[in-house]
Structures are given as C-alpha cells and as structure tokens.
Amino acid sequence: MRQETRGQAIAKAVDRALIERWALAYLGRFASSAANLRLVLLRRARKRLGEERDALAAAAAEIDRLVARYRETRLIDDAAYAAGRARSRLRRGQSLRTIRAGLAAKGVAAADAAAALAGLAGEGDPDLAAAVAFARRRRLGPFRRDGDAGRDRELAAFARAGFSRAAAAAVLGCADRDEAEALVRGER
Where are the domains positioned within the chain? Predict the structure, then answer.
C-alpha cells in the first residue's frame, strides 16, 4: 500500500475558500435549506478528507460558520425555500402530508413548514387542488383515457400518495375534466 506524501495531504485539505466555492456552486444550481446545505458540504468534505477526524472537525466548524453567515445575509432563507418548494410540489400533485414530510427531510423547521403550508391555503383547498393535479398526471378518474381502471385501484393510488379518502372520492366522483377543474375553483 502506498503512503501519502505531505504534498498529497496538503492537496486534500479543505479550507474556507474551497468550502465557499462548493457552497456557491451548489446554491447556483439548487435551492437549499440551511440544514441541507450543511449536509451537502459535510458530505463533500468527508469524501475529500476520508477518516481524518481532526480535519473533518475543522471543516465542520468552518461549514457551520459559513452556513450561519449565509443565513445572516439571507443568501439562505428557510422560510422562502419552504414556501417555494411547497408551491412547486403542490403543482406537481403531491399531498400536503407528502410536502410536509419532504420539507422535514430537507431540514426545514416545523414552524417554517407550517407557515409554507398555511400560505398554500389562499386559493381554496390545496389538498384538493393537489389531488386533481395528481389525477391529471397519473390519468386517474376524470382524466382517464379509456376503459375503467377500477375505483379501488385508483383510491389505493391516492392513498399511497398521501391523500385523504374524501379528497380522492371527490376527484374520482367528477364526470369529466371540466368538472374536476370546477371542483378546484370551488364551483362544485
């Protein structure tokens, strides 16, 4: 087994500038919560440094300082991140339960997640709107192309996606696409 030379160990070092480059490159491509950015940067440092505990501890401390600075300067805003992610997930047809779980997995605080979900309620029932979007995307109920896929199978698909039985039944009870859209607007 080959031993590392001092030059190779220095080349593997993780300093403030490198962590900053990693963070800005990541944030340039993806929106992120503070906790998620911290995990991403720690994973990169761990991959680069291996099992060097002292170097990992120093890198973790530097990552914490960087994340705190980004929060102060509002480069990272968990509340705005949660609101944007909740809106996009709702448009894709994800239930409020699934959205809440996804925000928690990304490290968003419960208060920020609750505020983001409360912000979705401005235009009627967000879970019902998501259920209609889910049905449209999966071609269920009134969006079915042909034949009868079976109500029980469609109810099961809604349940696996985290929707309530009432929301699923309301969408599946619609006769056609226009009726489903009217349901979202509150006209039905």
Answer: 6-72, 78-188
pLDDT digits (tens, 9 = 90+) for 149-178: 688 888 999 999 999 999 999 998 888 888
Which of these, 49, 52, 26, 50, lies nearest to 39 by C-alpha position?
Answer: 26
For the stretch 61-69, contacts whose Cβ atoms lie closer than 8 Å and that sit 24 or more positions apart, written own/partner, are: 62/14, 62/15, 62/16, 62/19, 63/19, 63/38, 64/38, 66/16, 66/19, 66/20, 66/23, 66/41, 67/34, 67/37, 67/38, 67/41
What is the structure's pLDDT at 150?
82
Helix axes 126-138, 96-105, angle to 10 degrees: 90
**pTM for the model:** 0.78
| Distance from C-alpha of 176 to C-alpha of 169, rounded to nearest angstrom | 14
